UniProtKB/TrEMBL annotation:
GO biological process: D-gluconate metabolic process; Entner-Doudoroff pathway through 6-phosphogluconate
Function: Catalyzes the dehydration of 6-phospho-D-gluconate to 2-dehydro-3-deoxy-6-phospho-D-gluconate.
Binding annotation for [4Fe-4S] cluster: 157, 224
Similarity annotation: Belongs to the IlvD/Edd family.
Gene Ontology terms for molecular function: 4 iron, 4 sulfur cluster binding; metal ion binding; phosphogluconate dehydratase activity
Superkingdom to which the source organism belongs: Bacteria
Metabolic or biological pathway: Carbohydrate metabolism; Entner-Doudoroff pathway
Cofactor binding: number and manner: Binds 1 [4Fe-4S] cluster.
Any GO CC annotation of this UniProt entry: cytosol
UniProt name for this protein: Phosphogluconate dehydratase
Cofactor: [4Fe-4S] cluster
Stretches assigned to the Dihydroxy-acid/6-phosphogluconate dehydratase N-terminal domain: 71-382
Amino acid sequence: MTVDRRIEEVTERLRERSEPTRSAYLKRIRSRISAGRPARGHLACGNLAHGFAACGPTDKERLSGDTTLNLGIVTAYNDMLSAHQPYERFPEMIREAAREAGGTAQVASGVPAMCDGVTQGQDGMELSLFSREVIALSAAVGLSHDMFDAAVYLGICDKIVPGLAIAALTFGHLPAIFVPAGPMTSGLPNDEKSRIRQLYAEGKVGRDALLAAESQSYHGPGTCTFYGTANSNQMLMEIMGLHTPGASFVNPNTPLRDALTREAAKRALAITAQGNEFTPVGEMVDERTIVNGVVGLHATGGSTNHTMHLVAIARAAGIHLTWKDISDLSEATPLLARVYPNSVADVNHFHAAGGMGFLIRELLDRGFLHEDVNTVWGKGLRAYAIEAKLGEGGATVKREPAPAVSGDAKILTTSDKPFSANGGLKVLSGNLGAAVIKVSAVKPERRFVEAPARVFHDQNELKAAFDAATLTGDFIAVVRFQGPKSNGMPELHKLTPLLGVLLDRGQKVALVTDGRMSGASGKVPAAIHVTPEAKDGGPIARIMDGDMLRLDPDAGTLDVLVDEAEFAARPAADPDLSHYEFGLGRELFAAFRHAVGRADEGASIF
């Protein structure tokens, strides 16, 4: 199938724009490859002895020679967070699988994993975005021992996978496979959870009812089941060929999940420089791979966070992805999936309807994806248009073609009958700068809002106005000084139930912010990641209460309707932000706030 002209045009200009940085990147990793890395065989005896001192006799004997393949495990395990708790068992499974394949495996490093669900609306959320950089740095420390022929990355949630991807591409001379743990089984339906959240916001139910609903929704091991950043991560890793086929949405602690994990370990050893299928991740991930990831994001209505994460991941491979690329790909890509908050279905329902295999086949058959890419499974993305099942004996994986018909056309549809002709994410531009909006969950009649501004410098100020019943009439809430330079760019989901209540009362409301809302962005139109941010001198800092704002996702615009000369002459607001600088470790991240780049450049310190 010929690639759609619009997809190919974006790919070609991405390739041309990236040529200088991509060439320099490839030169660096090829230099590492040609030097005969890893250096384990060249280490002094004392160095090497330190590297395998804690191993058992068999592994120690193997590592003391020159031919054994050694797999580095980078894990985000902790047992407080549901998504990462299943990883407790993975290192031993991987070690056993490596031994069966004649190799060894060692945990190279642990990386932090924080949960935006735990920190939502709390001070700790201000460390969330920067944790991506810490994860990349932590993985680099482990891999810097240069003991490994390939690496497997155990991570699943919001900033963890992007941070691990940045690290993997920094060590692009090594093969890399990402190993998911899977979503928790379905609990209380997400729409019911949201209904109770709104009732709580209105004071109609108490904390006991709210906690009961939340506990029934988030009830066991695995990722949350709504289609937020964590599950968008898994979609991306599969459609970019960094998972083994069919691995994304198999539940934790099941025989199939364990078989997929063992298979990933053996496959990682099979694609090292010592074999016939050498697949260094830095060469595998190219401009076509990145475009495939963006297309997948749009086709599924994925997380807005990836308008930053994909930019940062691409740049780690020397590829210069822009918001315009993302926006143009949105216009070319049909929306084929509806998963909460875009419908009542969760990711388990999506998987049961045909999941990633069905989605990839549909996009390939209509030319929306590059098929001729390299993956960890070999040449060509068509190998991912499958359904993974248990093989004979229950310990191996077999694969069958993805189902020909969607199991539920309300959740997963065909490319000739899309839910929308274009993707669920859009980039806005205007005299307020650039912003991102997720429209896939917003009803068409609610998307356009022209209304006076209500300006806040903190989400708690908006909540106080809601509690005081002063948020009357139509308005656009402007919550500013929430960008990465101000306070680390926290997610502002604390506002979602409040604004949802006002919307249900018949008010026209929207949100404009230089902060984040992420993949759980719901029914309220929200122009987020406004760039330049207020702290960086962006026009959003000059908005005043009562200014008319126009948010028009269909036209792709975000503007303040004030005389141009008058608006330019206004001084920017300059609030005291010192309360963002201390407590819960925020003081340790001052250098990050100072060094971080713009949201449209990945909001990265690298």
